[in-house]
């Protein structure tokens, strides 16, 4: 249930903060989360993301989490909360907003389509790394799904939409059904690192077998959904074969947290039989094809000139 | 915190107005949320406006959804209403302290502190949700989805740090003269509970108003009843060990 609200900020609109007076020029809409809309904005030639919400309490709750995270600055945690303020909309109403780092990149599924599935193992590892940092500081991401993972050049991963981020031990603040452990009758909705790893496994299935996963949600009765159904899907998928064992373990809560999961994933990536799956690299196949075409053309010319 | 969650697909047609009943609930500190379940056909303009008005009178939220969205809607509504209930209480306090009731009027830093308190209370305070299910004939194909939503809600509530209980009612009752029947008394888990509505005979009138009143009554009596039972146990000697 997304709370869609009418506010629309047009390109070129200047947003001025009511309390601190920060000025931002709106460029375009980046996306819509459960608590509001995210716009690309510019201030002093720098790009930022602006999230504006309909409900002050909902948005502030998210800001509080981001604020706490920002304070726990550790290695690899970049600053991402720059400004918090209210804006006056064209309709005269006030809306709360906050300014965060602009994450460049494309969504995970688009990235793999453009760049090729061979990036998947590395992207997966980087994603686990991101989750591991959150877990280490006492948080679960909560709403992990394909749409909330952005990938930039060379498989660099960033998480977006922190509306689901929950302190470990509390109830998950926001989740999406098919990625939810509770939906599959496989555990509670209390935030713990294993919750994210379960979602991570579903995310991998969603990337490689979206149709079969969707079919599974349609055909199973709610009370019959289980981890076994997901595991069954794993073992019969050729794309997921190299990581099937790992994913199964994640679904069953076999890894204590993302750091442990990442370690096992890394070992898997560097095993020779995992990598060997496609013996001839793509570029080599391409080269062979080009060569044979060139050869055919040359022979054709040769024959024609001889006639 | 107390809530009633009404799941229905149409207009009430017997007895007192559900809007009045919902206002009664609100005055007893019980918020009333309403979900209108659509699926083929619709609740009609009259149904839609009644659903909206019941929630407004009951200080809760209303949504029109199809069965596929039911679980998620019920879960989100309950959560949102918890926050709203606490927010109202906090705003009352704020009014006394600052002379200004609205959280939006606070500067962002102060707002952050207030919301931290709201979130904490929302997670830890006790919560009771009474589900009131319309079991008139047209609801029959939707009952499976309703049961799923109840199980799903229980799962979400169990994840809270505070104590959470649900009770389930349906209406109309199967026998004449019953507006509403209790299917499940206050409970904290649904383990092993596969069918909440066994052999339900569906049909008859739609006494939404009287059913809401019945649940309000249960809330009031229920607590009296509990203490009454305890004292009875006491005189039976079952709690004798605790008496010094």
Automatic annotation (TrEMBL), chain B:
Q: Which InterPro entries match?
A: VWF_A, vWFA_dom_sf
Every copy of the VWFA domain together lies at 1-86
What protein name applies here?
VWFA domain-containing protein
Q: Organism, per UniProt?
A: Paenibacillus agaridevorans
Q: What is the lineage of its organism?
A: Bacteria, Bacillati, Bacillota, Bacilli, Bacillales
